[in-house]
User: What shape does this take?
Amino acid sequence: MQCTLNQVAQVLPILFKSKVVPFLHSSPAIGKSSIAKQIAEKYHLEVIDLRLTEMDASDIQGLPYFKDGKSTFLPFDTFPIESTPLPKAKKGWLLLLDEFNSALPSVQASAYKLVLDRQIGQHKLHDKCCIIACGNLDSDNAIVNTMSSALISRFAHFYIQVDNTEWQEWAVANGIHPMITAFLNFKPNLLYTFNPDLDTPYASPRTWQMMSKILDNNTPLIVMASLLGLGVAHEFKAFMEYYKELPTIDDILKDPENYPIPDKTGIGWATLTMAVSHLDKDMNKLTTYLKRFNPEMHMVALREIKGRYGIEKIIQSKLLREWLTDLGIKAHGHKPR
Assistant: This one.
């Protein structure tokens, strides 16, 4: 079924416990492998990241070994078997089988035994090893080799969709540049612009993360276009020009009850994000200013404040705490968690 990455993350522990292997299908660059690594970190698992398109069948089943006139298969140490000691400070492994349905049929056949029997050659996979498979969509013009019906029935299948709200929450918590989150609040449709009929760069959760690492006021358009595509790069560059028109935090703090709220939508989003990112300078005054924005923008402010500061910081300001509580009740019928 179709779902978001967060929805999948919530059910993965259930599947792991039952030794059912999830298969995450999606268009490229939306964060399938990232969510697997986040799950691994949460549950203290060592990640084994394998691209099946780069593997041969023998890489999975092992190599033949002859002893006393008999042959067996010896597995590579890539895979944890029953005798493998747990990694230091870890509770097990997360085996990520990426590009599964793009692998050669012979490799898929070898992986069948791994998924079905949890076995490498004649050796059992370690009981503390969880498995996730990932693959592309054939509708995206990706190289996809049809999986056998027997293999398909061995997975729990999830079709991942990009969700802007989820990504914004992740972006704030992971230090993505505020200018990027402001822009994508203003233009959420530009988070993901993949078109399978084009072979040019496109915006995606992955490329926005890369953009965040190199972004400053002087980042050339040619660099932006190399990551996001020319059209998105032009729009983002134009949005960055808004920042030249923004008020300073000091100006806002001088008179938060009366300082003008920007009329232009783009400048409004940029100003809101800037105010949130400086909230710890004076929570009460900046909360007063933020409350004057269009109510449609309040929920974005709520999400960003929770992500950037956490509940411990929020409770230090009675005004901020009461405002966020009121917003949470309006949105969800209960206080924000």
User: Anything to note?
Assistant: Residues 164-332 form one domain. Residues 268 and 287 are 15 Å apart (CA to CA).
